[in-house]
Amino acid sequence: MSSYVLTPLAKSDIFEIWRMIAADSEQAADRVERAIYETCAFVAESPMRGHTQPEAVGLPLRYWTLTRFRNYTVVYKPESSPLEIVAVMHGKRNYRWILKQRG
């Protein structure tokens, strides 16, 4: 199994996602959180699986949308070793602005 690391901001993203969902259901929040970590491990096994959006932020990032929870996307640097997860975001967030801020 390939490895990955979460940036501090990606960890914060996951916590905020969990917190927002847990306001209604901790069990649902736990399921989404587990799916996020499973997705991180999945893309770490083959980092080129995700898609690119070079016009979006001009950074060499790839994106993978969670299969079971399609509102959430894992953003990562495919060339890093271990794979660096830079963000986990809800699809309605302004990811271009967020990622530009994270540089």
Task: From the structure above, extract its key features.
single chain, 103 residues, alpha+beta, YaeB-like fold, five-stranded mixed beta sheet
Give the SSE map:
Layout: E1 4-6, H1 8-22, H2 26-45, E2 51-52, H3 54-57, E3 62-65, E4 72-77, E5 83-90, H4 95-102
Parallel strand pairs: 1-5
Antiparallel strand pairs: 2-3, 3-4, 4-5
Helix pairs in contact: 1-2
Short description:
With 103 residues, the protein is of the alpha+beta class. It has helices at 8-22, 26-45, 54-57, 95-102; strands spanning 4-6, 51-52, 62-65, 72-77, 83-90.
Describe this structure in words.
The chain is of the alpha+beta class and 103 residues long. It has one domain (4-102): 2-Layer Sandwich (YaeB-like fold). 46% of the residues lie in helices and 22% in strands. Helix 1 (8-22) packs antiparallel against helix 2 (26-45). The protein is globular. The N and C termini lie far apart (28 Å).
As an assembly, this protein is single chain
Class based on secondary structure composition and strand pairing = alpha+beta
- The CATH architecture designation is 2-Layer Sandwich
What is the arithmetic mean of pLDDT?
A: 88
Beta-strand percent range:
15-25%
CATH homologous superfamily placement = RelE-like
The 3D shape can be described as globular
Helix content: 40-55%
Count of beta strands: 5
Rg over CA atoms, rounded to whole Å, is 13 Å
CATH topology type: YaeB-like fold
Largest β-sheet summary: 5 strands, mixed
CATH class call: Alpha Beta
- Estimate nothing, just give the exact number of structural domains: 1
End-to-end Cα distance? 28 Å
Q: Name the strands of the widest sheet in spatial order.
A: 1-5-4-3-2
Uncertain regions: pLDDT < 50 for 5+ in a row? none
Number of helices: 4
